[in-house]
Write a structure and sequence with these properties.
By secondary structure, the protein is α+β, with helices and mostly antiparallel strands. The chain has helices at 2-16, 32-47, 54-68, 71-79, 88-107, 170-200, and strands at 117-125, 131-138, 145-154, 157-165, 168-169. Strand 1 and strand 2 form a beta hairpin. It is globular, with a radius of gyration of 16 Å.
Length: 212
Amino acid sequence: MKRFLSALAFAVVAAVASPAAVEHSLAATQTPEQFVEQTSNEVLGILRDKALSQDAKIAKLEIMLDRRSDFETISKLVLAVHYKQFSDAQKKDFENLLHRYLTTTYGHQIDNYANETVSVVGGRPEARGDYTVQTRIKRSTGADLAVEYRLRKVGEDWRLIDVIGEGISLVSNLRSQFGEILNAGGPDRLLTVLREKNASGTPAKLPLAGEK
């Protein structure tokens, strides 16, 4: 179970991060498969860099997260019917807090990386012009894992909006967890909880992040 969860954490990190040294923007002509393949290959440089501390790796991930993800869409998908309850300022606060929350959560799994690699095995168009890229995480021990990346066009570039590992959706999991908090205390309560979690460095309680 631990190896499975660590591999999924690697999948999420690979989907949303790239080395700070890569300053050029993603080519508009990239296919979704090329987007995922390039991102996966680049993140291996961070994971394999023994000169970087965990904090340094987390910092790189947070800085680069926006370049590979559409956090406005992710926030809307996570909050679902609750999204309209948030003011414009609260929506922005939530995006920023969620950004940090996920970076911290999956950053804590970096040291569990054990030479997993990602191979693109297929893809399919989705509704709204989205696209799902299918991959396999290859492990030195145990069976390979199936991970799908849901992408959406933002302007001319592809951006990540969800990761599904062995049938477990990151967005759906967050929606369920945050929905309970919102039902009990509304937007203010959720923002307070996220601020407290981020301040303490507490990882999210998600199956994708190594929680049982």
